[in-house]
Amino acid sequence: MIFSCLLIGAIAVTSAQSLSRDQLVFLTSQWEGERFEDGRPKVADDILQRMESVTIEEAWGVLRNEGYHNQFEGGWELLHDDVPVVGRALTVQYMPNRPDVSDQIKKKGKAEGEIGSPNSWPIDRLIEGDVYVADGFGKIVDGTLIGDNLGNSIYAKSKRGVIFNASSRDMEGLSEIEGFNAYVRGWHPSFLQEVMLLSINSPIRIGAASVLPGDIVLAKKEGVIFVPAHLAEKVVVTSEVVRLRDLFGITKLKEGKYTPGQIDSKWSDEIEKDFSQWLKDHMDELPVPKAQIEELLKKRTW
């Protein structure tokens, strides 16, 4: 009931189909850090940068352990399979067109200063670090949310890509935008038709995943995982620890210092102490920021 009231209130009183700041704060209440003016959690740029090295499996494992079982979606068609997309979600909900509702939304948007067609309104809100995440109800033909013109605008503003439960057009033109990537359900030369924008920065569903504004998008070959903002740092730190322990284990196995049985089971105190010393000795060479290794060592008791 509370959630329904939030959505009704958003459509009735907030700017261009967006949830109010208070409503966003309510829905993302476990986030205790800085927020954008619109209320979205502002996960630090440093976390975004470090998230790029996290694997889908590592993020999935942390989220499952925290009780979040519905954050991954696969089955995408990618513009590039070697360009990850990492950033803060700006969410958009599209629905099949219904003229009475669509006309009201357009009228309200025009009165509030929105420019152009509604599918360009979310793009006007993008800032650097945002990922445009849209539920276009899986529509392919006449469901192309962007072409190369809008794609260039998106990348100019966000320096990121898009995640669309819908299609896109102009694959060739979009592929020429260096650094841009698109995760879509298909490619089609048609134009967007019989689709209406319902909300911006509201909770949406992307396949099997629930997505809130400000979630951290981690999109790689395997698919897309949406990390709740309050768990982003934990995902990153856990991934870095796993990375360091794996590298230590492989190094010591190659040296013949430990057996596979010793490395693949719970480490003894002796191995843990060796790991700590190895971190100190190789701090400047490891694939994790030095500051994070120093922080890890502070928390260790051996």
From TrEMBL:
Cofactor: Mg(2+)
Sorted UniProt keywords: Magnesium, Metal-binding
Matching InterPro entries: RraA/RraA-like, RraA/RraA-like_sf
GO MF annotation list: metal ion binding
Protein residues bound to substrate: 147-150, 169
A Pfam family of this chain: RraA-like
Superkingdom of this protein's organism: Bacteria
Residues annotated to bind Mg(2+): 170
Protein name from the UniProt record: RraA family protein
Native source organism of the sequence: Poritiphilus flavus
